[in-house]
Structure formats: C-alpha cells, structure tokens
Amino acid sequence: MTNSAKVQARGADKRRRLMRAAAQVLHEQGVERTTLADIANAAGVQVGNVYYYFKTKDELVRAALAEHSARLDALTARLDERPDPLDRLKGLVEAWVGERDTAARYGCPTGTLAAELDKRADGTLDQAAGDTIRQLLDWAQAQFAALGLADPADLAVTLVAGYQGMSLLTNALRDPGIMTREGDRLLRWLDGLAGPTSAPGRPG
Prior knowledge:
The N and C termini lie far apart (59 Å). This protein is mainly α. It has ten helices and no strands. Helix content is 77%, strand content 0%.
C-alpha cells in the first residue's frame, strides 16, 4: 500500500469513528448538551482534527443520522435473509426488545433525536431524522404487503408507533420491563394478523 493510500485509509477510519461516536454521544446526551470535544473524545480523535471532517455540529448530527440509517440498513438486510415476512417483522420487534436496557437509559436513538431537532427553527435536520423513520416504515410496509394484508402502510405505522411508544415509556419510567411486555404484545399482534381468521387491526 502506498503512503497516499495509507493516509486515505486512516482518514476514512477517523471519519467512521467520528460518525459512530456522534451517533452514540448524541443519543446519550442530546444535541444541545453535546460538544465537538465530547464526540472527539469518544472517537479517540483530537478535537482539532474533527473540523477537517465535519465543520459544524450540524454536520455531525447529519453524520449521526447517516450512521443510524446505516445500522437500520444492516439490521433489515439481516432480517431479509429470512424467507418469511412475518418472521422478519417478528425479528425486528425482537431486535427492539434486545435494546431495552439502552432504551431505558436514553430512549430510541432516532426518535429522541427527531423530537429534539423538531424544536429547531431551521427545519432541515428534523426532516433528515424523519427520513430515517420513513426508511423503517417503508421496510415494514413491504413486509406487510408481502403477507398479503390490507392497508400495509397503516399497519407499518401501527408497528412503528408501538415501538416509539414503548421506547418512550421505557425511557421515561426507566423500566426495561415495559419494552419486554409491549414487545410480547406486538409479537402476539403480528401472529394474529397472519392467522387465517384474523383481520388487520391494532395491537391489543
């Protein structure tokens, strides 16, 4: 590998570390409380080097959203390896429940960020956060459609809304058990939707 290639590889590695750190720290601390130094420290990068890759905190927020989007892509790609769309949807719920301890401390990574960015006046970063949520909705809708269910878009909203609600309550009450119980409820709802005598409806 040439020296130039090594420099490029090191630069790409630093950028990836900063993106991962931004996603983590912004989730844990929120946008307003987080400084560039916080993200640099979490990434193991000197603060001065951050500006080479990201000029402003807003650029780091975008990088964090891109990281969340990439993680969602990775998760849904793994789930897409399952042949049954119902099993894919249930795997999504199980993945959410598997993050219950993190949710109890910090809430949903994208949901909490979207709620915070919505308070800002510029109206750009909140749209970027919404795009990540739309990405999840579109994937869930495709699974419901593959099951041959009516109103797959509405069912996707119900599923994701259920996740956001249980994540919010889990965080507000600091109770991971809420995530477990509500996750079980969503799994039963999904099983009911796929049953031969069930009609699409709300989780109950």
